[in-house]
Amino acid sequence: MGLRTAEQYRNSLRDGRAVFFRGQKVADVTTHPVIGIAVEHAAIDYMMADDPRYRELAVVSDGGEQYSRYYQVPRTADDLLARSRLIAASTREGATLVVLIKEIGTDALFALRIVSTQMAVAGKPEYRERIEKYHRYCRDHDLAVAVAQTDVKGDRSLGPSAQEHPDYYLRIVAERPDGIVVRGAKVHTSVSTNTNEVIVLPTRAMRPEDKAYAVAFAIPIATPGLKLIASAHGSGAKDPGEHPISARHKMIETLTVFDDVFVPKERVFLQGEAEFAGLLALTFVRFHRFTAVSYKLPLLELLCGAGYAIAEANGVLAAGHVRDKLTHLAAYHTVVRGLIEHAAASCTVEEGVAVPNTLLTNVAKFHFAHNYHQAVQIVQDLAGGLIVTAPAAEDLTSEATREYVLRYLGGKKGFDAEQRLRLINLIGDLTASDFGGYQEVLAVHAEGGFEAEKMQAYREYDFKSAAAYARKLAGV
Predict the structure, then answer these.
(1) How high does pLDDT run on average in the chain?
(2) Can you list the residues of the chain whose pLDDT is less than 70?
């Protein structure tokens, strides 16, 4: 099939999928007033592949075949850097909101390739063959692929098989010669309403008694029994003037319900091998946190740019405390970018796949997450209270109010009231709206929370060598 157009992508979503929004089944996600915005946002990926400005970055030519760079298996540091640049470029086109319809799916495919090779050594070669075939299928059909990993978990102090409710973790409820039947739910499943496929991964390490919960597979979104209950967060109608980002760009998350869903044998990638569940979960995270930091870079660039632009419009750019705040934003952006570029440059090759440096990736993600709220505070401080008290967009068009808004809300010479309000509305949408709150929660929880990143960094850092150096100097 080859590369698809944006229109072919939209048409592929009209397949009878079971999507529910505020309790009602959605007849067509492409025309839905909220999910349709997410569809158009996701179409950025397909438009970039057809855009001369991005064609070389977005498309790989391999032996006469052309396909999305996302589906290229990274073999070198340069491959990882190109992938990072593509993720950042698409997020920039998405006005700081990641597109994610191929990024996350291919993160999972790379992890599955690595782990399946290790499983083959352990006497399970069939999984590697299935994954290679599925990877080619997604690549050759230019599919959009979501990942469902996080189980609802129930009592967090208990493992999967110890839960009072047996379906708090997704599990295999029947095994057949031609496949398996699964039951349960996953939560926080991004972009699932508007992708073609979903890859399901375990969320944690499993013990032998958790065998039924050690499962990984891929299915089409329209598979019978798969139900997507969409989050309605931030779904109200928005004026593009007041909300220049969130009125045009959206990503939908779902509670993803598997109501006795049949998975064909060739789509099953883990079936009861509990000893590999944790490894698969962690290997996916190694790629996905690299993706996460890559798509955070345009967001940090915008915080820097918006802070500078509003300080200039307000006439305070020369103030020492303002320059200090802007320097903090610049350093924040630069450190995160430098860490992720170094993570790619110092990658390791595992089972033929280039894996970003895990320590640097987790430190980059932690540094981003730990400092995000302070960066928001700085930009809000530079902008002033008008980000939540400014007149409405209609006040700039009403004959009764326009004159007063233009007369009184101008800034430094060269910045009239309309220009200044556009900057203020951009900052308000980014930091003080439901979209701003969404970004702040993502900073804390997306791709793993603070403790997960800290634990991984602790595991990866070579404390023994550092301690040996300390003992040597101490004469111990």
Answers:
(1) 96
(2) 1
